[in-house]
Amino acid sequence: MFVGHYAASFAAKSLEPRAPLWTYIAAAQLVDIGWSGLVMANIERMHMDASLPGSPLVLEYMPYTHSLPGALAWALGAAILARLVLRLPWRAGLFIGLTVFSHWLGDLLVHRPDLELWFGGQKVGFGLWNYPVPEEALEMGLLAIAGAAWAWGRGARAQSVAPALMFLGFLVVLQIVALVLPGGGDTAGFGRTALAGYLVATFLAWLTERGDRRRNATS
Fold this sequence. Notes:
mainly alpha; two-stranded antiparallel sheet; two-stranded antiparallel ribbon; 9 helices; 4 strands
């Protein structure tokens, strides 16, 4: 799963709008942001197999980011940092933590069995990647439903819907680019490309709400 993870960001933003959008966007991919860095450092390991249906990723070793206890630790850490560093309300921190953990649940649906239930333990994954059409339909459907709820909420608060539509359009383009990219290449290069995509999405989310603040200041 790629942009489907962002559905949790929009759902969380709709339910708890006091946290900035960029925190939810970063939270949805925080596990993969960490994974990208660890792959580049050769601490966690993967390779690509273009012959596989759907995703070409073969995720060999990633206990620190994609095991169940690892994902819970990232979620707890994000919630605490949201409260102590960003000074957000505890409820907002809780929603950020839940958004982080939603990544593991989304991966459970689509990954082949490569998610450890405990460090060094049994690996699980329902393998929807092996069925590319239903998997893509799931991702786009989740994104469309949660994104529409977020855009509707903006309209209800008399905020422009156009930035929301542009941001959602960017995510759709990002998914298409990910689909057409070749399945080979070195793992460090893949890690850098993935990390760049996550950070650009976070930056654009920040720009979206920065534009809202400017419009509010001049109205």
